[in-house]
Automatic annotation (TrEMBL):
<feature type="binding site">
    <location>
        <position position="391"/>
    </location>
    <ligand>
        <name>substrate</name>
    </ligand>
</feature>
<feature type="site" description="Participates in the substrate recognition with KAPA and in a stacking interaction with the adenine ring of SAM">
    <location>
        <position position="17"/>
    </location>
</feature>
<dbReference type="GO" id="GO:0030170">
    <property type="term" value="F:pyridoxal phosphate binding"/>
</dbReference>
<dbReference type="Pfam" id="PF00202">
    <property type="entry name" value="Aminotran_3"/>
</dbReference>
<feature type="binding site">
    <location>
        <position position="144"/>
    </location>
    <ligand>
        <name>substrate</name>
    </ligand>
</feature>
<dbReference type="InterPro" id="IPR015424">
    <property type="entry name" value="PyrdxlP-dep_Trfase"/>
</dbReference>
<feature type="binding site">
    <location>
        <position position="307"/>
    </location>
    <ligand>
        <name>substrate</name>
    </ligand>
</feature>
<comment type="subunit">
    <text>Homodimer.</text>
</comment>
<keyword id="KW-0663">Pyridoxal phosphate</keyword>
<feature type="binding site">
    <location>
        <position position="52"/>
    </location>
    <ligand>
        <name>substrate</name>
    </ligand>
</feature>
<keyword id="KW-0808">Transferase</keyword>
<dbReference type="GO" id="GO:0009102">
    <property type="term" value="P:biotin biosynthetic process"/>
</dbReference>
<keyword id="KW-0963">Cytoplasm</keyword>
<dbReference type="InterPro" id="IPR005814">
    <property type="entry name" value="Aminotrans_3"/>
</dbReference>
<dbReference type="InterPro" id="IPR049704">
    <property type="entry name" value="Aminotrans_3_PPA_site"/>
</dbReference>
<feature type="binding site">
    <location>
        <position position="245"/>
    </location>
    <ligand>
        <name>pyridoxal 5'-phosphate</name>
    </ligand>
</feature>
<dbReference type="GO" id="GO:0005737">
    <property type="term" value="C:cytoplasm"/>
</dbReference>
Amino acid sequence: MNKLDLDFDRNHIWHPYTSTISPLNCYPVSHAVGNQIHLESGEVLIDGMSSWWAAIHGYNHPRLNSAVTEQLSRMSHVMFGGLTHQPAIGLCQKLLQMVPPSLQHVFLADSGSVAVEVALKMALQYWHSRGESRPRFLTLRHGYHGDTFAAMSVTDPDNSMHRLYRGFLPEHLFAESPQTGFYEPWHPQDIDDFQSQLEQHHHTIAAVILEPIVQGAGGMRIYHPRYLQEVRKLCDQFNVLLIADEIATGFGRTGKLFACEHAQIEPDILCVGKALTGGYMTLSATLTTRHVAQTVCSGEAQCFMHGPTFMGNPLACAVAEASLSLIETGDWQTQVQQIEHFFATHLPALQQYGMVKDVRWLGAIGVIETHQPVRMAEIQAHFVRQGVWIRPFGRLIYLMPPYLSTDDDLAQLIQAIERALQQPALFFQ
Ligand SMILES: *Cc1c(COP(=O)(O)O)cnc(C)c1O
């Protein structure tokens, strides 16, 4: 194999949230199998990230591979306007079997951010059809809903630097994020700020959008199911739609198929993405009820006004359907339980390090919050030397390994974190 031109990569290719002035080195990957990432250097890393919540079944999975190659020999893509195909139908049938029965209509989109855009547009069109002007959304601080403009406008204003885009970004309403942790006794006043915002502004609010139970990229916060129950009640009381963004939490990650199940609530609109294709390619979906869909389509536009070029891409649908088949076997349940048990047994001990502010976990999500932010290049190099792939951000070192991770894999991941916590040089002081 030719030597990779890493200078070219550094000088010309943008990676997520990176600088062209002082780019950090990236680690070149040659291939990945199961939960192992093989670097070009020959080093093998145990994956702690599932490539950002996506590769839940691990890499290079035989069933997923054959779903792609079989579909490839039929067609990789045809337009979805006026045409349809078995991969889309099969996928949407499986999806509807998994979600709450009130959700009946599926919009296939290209990425998580687009699924959020679609959800917001659905809510706006819903109220437009009903002859009401409701231009605003209510969401939670520390949320994350994506990087496109509408998604960013409902993402935490500080984390997504709203001030950079002032004048262009619509201004929505932010309630205090939930303070009661998942395992703590419920504090009823936790919902007060949300409730008062809804009381004051409900006539102008099209929908509430939030990440159920786990706020991901905006702070890895894991909150009490009661909060979500109260949100559902208040949305009903004030006649506001509820959008659940399960792009990170969907498909078993929190120990339930969907995080909303922890609170036994059903949203009016549901966004899924990330793990939908088992991490094979980009695909997302926005699902809604018959009532919302029919209201949207009975308005001035007579249809839902969105239609991406690569909508319903057959390759992506085929692999997503195969991924959902793997989920249907139910193996994820014991796997995620075993990971949760391992986290519950081993993460609390990390509290002994002065560096650590908090540890928390739920399902196959483990979070170590430190007092000081990490030095990215240094800690990344540390993890690679330890034979693991963990990518922290800010003051958060977190794990969301593929479901097939064994106790030995998890022990190695946590040991690598423990060793990092013993080295102040890996953190800003
Ligand atoms: C990742 C994420 C998104 C955005 O998905 P992309 O595929 O990166 O556009 C939206 N919402 C949540 C909760 C996410 O975790």
